[in-house]
Model the fold of this input.
Amino acid sequence: MEIKRYSFQQHGDDRGMLVALEELKDIPFSVRRIYYIYDTLAGVRRGFHAHKNLKQILVCVKGSCKLHLDNGFETEEVLLDKPYEGIYLDNNIWREMYDFSEDAVLLVLASEYYDEADYIRDYQKFLEFVNAGGK
Ligand code: T46
Done:
């Protein structure tokens, strides 16, 4: 399964590090929404859905977490543990996030405003969506 990883430019000096993300340059879409997940309790698994349209970039800006990604044909486990690395999540990918470190902060840049109608929360419906060529 092809995973699109981004390694963002780090601007470091003797004060520390800085990463800047610009839409349509570092991020391959216009960013309509930013959200972040933190204080995740031990053993928690979140996500369990795909999207009809939404594209996202996920960056674990602090700590670490793992992603279980599923395109309906193959699955992949991805470790996010670097504040300068991003994973591109296409709409038609079933995602679950797990193994959050206690200090994990998962930052998400999203191509659309929040819309519950865009979620596919039923795994069978997700398989039907991808088998019907859902893009
Ligand atoms: C995704 C993964 C990576 C809002 O009100 N606005 C928002 O923009 C979002 C993302 C969520 N919410 C509300 C809806 C729920 O009441 O926040 C609550 C938690 O959301 P959810 O259960 O969808 O969170 P996750 O961690 O399962 O999934 C989230 C995103 O929803 C999803 O798009 O791809 O992170």
